[in-house]
Automatic annotation (TrEMBL):
Protein name as catalogued: Phosphoesterase
UniProt similarity note: Belongs to the metallophosphoesterase superfamily. YfcE family.
Top EC class, one word: hydrolase
Domain Calcineurin-like phosphoesterase: 1-163
Listed GO MF terms: hydrolase activity; metal ion binding
Keyword field contains Ligase: no
UniProt keyword list: Hydrolase, Metal-binding
InterPro entries, A to Z: Calcineurin-like_PHP_lpxH (IPR024654), Metallo-depent_PP-like (IPR029052), MPP_YfcE (IPR041802), PdiEstase_YfcE_CS (IPR020935), Phosphodiesterase_MJ0936/Vps29 (IPR000979)
Species per Swiss-Prot/TrEMBL record: Aliivibrio sifiae
EC number of this enzyme: 3.1.4.-
Xref: Gene3D superfamilies: 3.60.21.10
Length: 182
């Protein structure tokens, strides 16, 4: 199974187009969206190419491939534009190995406030806009960063990819920023 992760699009159409293009090129089975899809939020500047309706229209074309969770900037009004569900605070992907990936945005559940998980399970979240792929205690904490407002060192927009047992964060030039084996 191959999964593509993106978070914190914040209504930027150019960033969303880059996500879709890279997702399609990766030939991943699913596009995992970890929240903050359409709105930029009160603490962020208006993003380049801000176009909420355009972002929704583009994402809706791939709705059958998307698994999404609600970010702190996502609302019922945003859901009205999207043809896939985004209002759940979390979702779970079961891997063929029996491990879980707990999908959430990060404002409710995160590395510091974890749900009950087994050793080796993954917490995948966005929210901080900082890339992470590492063991923290008994779980793997994974954050693909942000496609629109990256805050990781170097400030490069990024995404995540699970390919077999390799869980990686990459920039859009294909450089691996963080990586871990499941």
């Amino acid at each position: 199974m191959k999964l593509f992760f993106a978070s914190d699009l914040h209504g930027s159409l150019p960033a969303t187009q880059r996500v879709i293009d890279t997702f399609l090129a990766s030939k991943a089975d699913h596009l995992i969206l970890l929240g903050d899809l359409i709105n930029f939020g009160p603490r962020n500047p208006i993003p380049e190419g801000h176009n909420p309706i355009g972002v929704a229209d583009l994402l809706n074309q791939y709705a059958e491939s998307i698994i999404a969770v609600r970010g702190n900037c996502d609302s019922e009004v945003d859901q009205m534009l999207l043809s896939f569900p985004i209002m759940s605070d979390y979702n779970i992907v079961l891997l063929p190995t029996g491990k879980k990936i707990f999908l959430t945005h990060g404002h409710i559940y995160n590395a510091d406030k974890r749900p009950l998980l087994k050793k080796g399970d993954v917490i995948a979240h966005g929210h901080t806009h900082i890339t992470v792929a590492e063991w923290q205690g008994e779980q793997i904490i994974f954050n693909p960063g942000s496609t629109t407002f990256p805050r990781n060192e170097g400030g490069k927009p990024s995404y995540g990819l699970l390919d077999g047992t390799n869980l990686s964060v990459l920039d859009f030039d294909g450089n691996i920023l963080n990586s871990i084996k499941l």
